[in-house]
Write a structure and sequence with these properties.
Elements: H1 17-33, E1 36-38, E2 40-42, E3 45-47, E4 51-56, E5 59-67, H2 74-90, H3 94-110, H4 112-123, H5 127-152, E6 163-171, E7 174-178, H6 186-197, E8 201-205, H7 211-224, E9 231-233, H8 238-246, E10 252-256, H9 259-269, E11 281-285, E12 290-294, H10 300-312, E13 322-328, H11 332-343, H12 364-380, E14 382-386, E15 401-404, E16 421-427, H13 430-438, E17 442-443, E18 445-449, H14 453-462, E19 467-470, E20 487-488, E21 506-514
Parallel strand pairs: 1-5, 7-8, 7-10, 8-9, 10-11, 12-13, 12-18, 13-16, 15-16, 18-19
Antiparallel strand pairs: 2-3, 4-5, 6-21, 14-15, 17-20
Helix pairs in contact: 1-4, 3-5, 3-7, 4-5, 5-6, 10-11
Length: 522
């Protein structure tokens, strides 16, 4: 099997009426067909039910998905089925596994409008964000398929006369994937595809807010040729994820989500019970408190819209979203005024409306959390801007808010909010900004707007973040172009969508052979 060179999946041009109509038609069909069905899906065993398991954040009375809910008792069955599926799947050459992933990508590509519509309804992703989510999911399938073929070739080792050395990579076993809701297609499929591409069996525990999207992905993988035993779906609550982490038959945990949950996973996975034959490996991405530095010579025509996009697109519900701006004191007033003007143009509303920037947040608890932080920030600082037009009583809406002048110990400056709230701080210079960033326990993404190349290089050397963006928005990492992952408490330093990511799902094996033969037995 020969695959062409990897290229990123093009997004739809939503200015074209044909694309908009196709998406709206898919949404209409989704609504007309009623809630999607989500099973507990282990091997060939499919358990269905009629329980509501997800709703529309923009209209909480609308049920998006119904189905069965897995419990911790389902985890041992899923692992046992995975062990049987692993035997079959791992014996396939990498080209065979790649072929299945590419076929799954073809299946998903043919249904990209339906997938985007489901993300709009279940996760309240605006159309442009939902379409980009589909494209990234396709990229992960295609990129990791090619990566697995390359990985099977092994690594080159030193050669000396009379000796042959080879290093090959083998799958670890069972991968437990615990996925988030904010990229309900791309992130779970990326983690699952990495596990499958390298020959592992996978048990997927999706976010309880987006089980319908996860079921759609599992259907794509099975339609592409992944054996039923190699991919299981356990839609459920946190107890399912906890049981998956602690099960002795699970070799690798791939997690994307909050810091507290991620740290608990790391602690639990480190426990090695008596009789265990392997150490669990944790691949984790745990969010951040992402800062953008705006230096005195920055082009504000770039900086202002870039910051607004980074902070408020998808209501700030991206782990890479900007939450703090550190702006040089000489331009702080001008920047803040222009920022307020830009926030006033944001479109707040239901995700299904084309052109919406800020949809509702995912659920009632998220709305309460964001509003609590916003109220505290407004009391402690100075309100710069708030965009209340478009905020509806129906749905979990939060008004995009910018606050400045906060005291240095304000909790909002250090804690992850995960919503449309941005703070602005005046600093004397770039080093002062870097000092404030160094105080943070997180190091996921960061941004810099500056024209001086010496300033850029200086910040690059000082920045601890996993992904630093210069003179552009700090969200929207592309597979193969900007491998994504954080440092410090933002994660294990892995880079999803990069050339090294698959190494987390395999074990290296070295074979050394003496080639000076003393006789040959046939």
């Amino acid at each position: 099997m020969s695959l062409p060179a990897f290229v990123n999946e093009p997004v739809l041009e939503l200015r074209r009426a044909a694309h908009r109509n196709a998406l709206l038609s898919a949404l209409k069909d989704l609504d007309a067909s009623g809630p999607v069905r989500v099973p507990v899906w282990i091997g060939s065993d499919r358990r269905d039910a009629d329980d509501p398991i997800s709703t529309d954040p923009g209209n909480p009375d609308r049920v998006v998905a119904i189905g069965a809910t897995a419990t911790a008792a389902d985890v041992p069955r899923a692992v046992e089925a995975g062990e049987r599926g692993f035997t079959e799947w791992s014996r396939l050459p990498a080209t065979g596994r790649a072929q299945a992933l590419v076929a799954a990508a073809s299946w998903l590509r043919e249904r990209r409008h339906q997938a985007a519509a489901l993300a709009v309804r279940e996760a309240a992703k605006p159309w442009a964000e939902a379409d980009a989510d589909v494209c990234e999911a396709l990229d992960f399938l295609e990129y990791y398929a090619r990566g697995a073929v390359a990985l099977e070739g092994g690594e080159s080792l030193l050669v000396v006369p009379g000796e042959r050395n080879e290093m090959r990579y083998r799958p670890r076993g069972i991968v437990g994937v615990i996925a988030p809701w904010n990229f309900p297609l791309a992130i779970p499929l990326g983690m699952v595809a990495a596990g499958l591409a390298t020959g592992n069996a996978v048990v997927l525990k999706p976010a309880e807010q987006a089980p319908g999207c996860a079921a759609f992905l599992v259907e794509a993988l099975r339609a592409g040729g992944v054996p039923a035993g190699a991919i299981a779906l356990l839609p459920g609550e946190g107890d399912v994820g906890a049981a998956l982490v602690r099960h002795p038959g699970v070799h690798t945990i791939a997690f994307t989500g909050s810091g507290p949950v991620g740290l608990e996973i790391v602690r639990a996975a480190a426990e090695t019970p008596p009789g265990a034959r392997h150490l669990k490996r944790v691949v984790a991405e745990m969010g951040g408190k992402n800062c953008v530095i705006v230096d005195a010579d920055a082009d504000l025509d770039d900086a202002v819209p870039g910051v607004v996009r980074s902070a408020f697109a998808y209501a700030g519900q991206k782990c890479s979203a900007a939450s703090r701006v550190l702006v040089h004191e000489s331009i702080a007033d001008t920047f803040t005024q222009r920022l307020a003007g830009a926030v006033a143009t944001l479109q707040v509303g239901q995700a299904e409306r084309f052109g919406v920037d800020v949809p509702p947040v995912i659920e009632a608890d998220a709305q309460a959390r964001v509003r609590r932080y916003a109220d505290a920030a407004r009391r402690a600082g100075t309100l710069v801007a708030v965009r209340e037009e478009g905020v509806e009583d129906v749905g979990w809406f939060c008004a995009p808010t910018v606050v400045a002048g906060l005291p240095g110990d304000a909790p909002v400056l250090f804690e992850e909010v995960f919503g449309p709230l941005l703070t602005v701080e005046a600093v004397r210079d770039v080093d002062a900004a870097c000092d404030r960033i160094d105080e943070l326990p997180f190091a996921l993404t960061g941004g810099l707007y500056a024209r001086n190349p010496h300033t850029v290089e200086h910040v690059v050397r000082r920045s601890p973040v996993g992904n630093l963006y210069v003179n552009r928005s700090i969200t929207g990492a592309m597979v193969g172009r900007q491998p994504f992952g954080g440092n410090r408490l933002s994660g294990t330093g892995t880079k999803a969508g990069g050339p090294d990511y698959l190494l987390h799902f395999v074990e290296p094996h070295v074979v050394t052979e003496n080639t000076v033969r003393h006789g040959l037995i046939i």
